[in-house]
Design brief:
Helices cover 37% and strands 15% of the residues. The protein is α/β, with parallel strands linked by helices and 130 residues long. It has one domain. The chain has a 4-stranded parallel beta sheet with strand order 2-1-3-4. The longest helix has 17 residues. It is globular, with a radius of gyration of 15 Å.
């Protein structure tokens, strides 16, 4: 079993290679600090939000049974319900939930001062309150 995360970040286009490398390195450091060292998912910096979604859809089609494929994008604004990620993306981006995709395959970066934090809603609430 493997895990792949399609990331919004880096850049698309001719000058993107260096930015994609730096984006993956930043996310890798963040995940290492969250105790993922030794079980790091494959990180794919896609550039734009739309490209990340498109690459995620393609990745879903080609994944092996049991592999975890996820999309990690900015939430852009607070969610009304963290358990309905695809509803949020449908309203915000007009994206249709891909066949076979579930809400737990969407990871959001928090919107607080554009800080990119990997955390769950419970941990953020415990730390910052309501």
């Amino acid at each position: 079993m493997s895990a792949t995360l399609y990331l919004e970040g880096g850049a698309s286009g001719a000058d993107s290679k260096e930015l994609q490398i730096r984006c993956r390195a930043g996310f890798r450091k963040l995940l290492e600090k969250c105790d993922y060292k030794g079980r790091m998912p494959r990180l794919i910096a896609c550039g734009s939000r739309q490209v990340a979604f498109d690459d995620f859809e393609i990745g879903l089609v080609g994944n092996a049974l049991g592999d975890y494929i996820a999309l990690w994008v900015d939430s852009e604004y607070p969610l009304t319900d963290i358990e309905t990620t695809w509803d949020h993306l449908r309203r915000r981006d007009n994206w249709t939930q891909p066949s076979g995709a579930t809400d737990d395959q969407v990871l959001f970066m928090t919107t607080c001062m554009e800080t990119l934090i990997a955390a769950d809603r419970g941990a953020l609430t415990d730390h910052y309150g309501a």
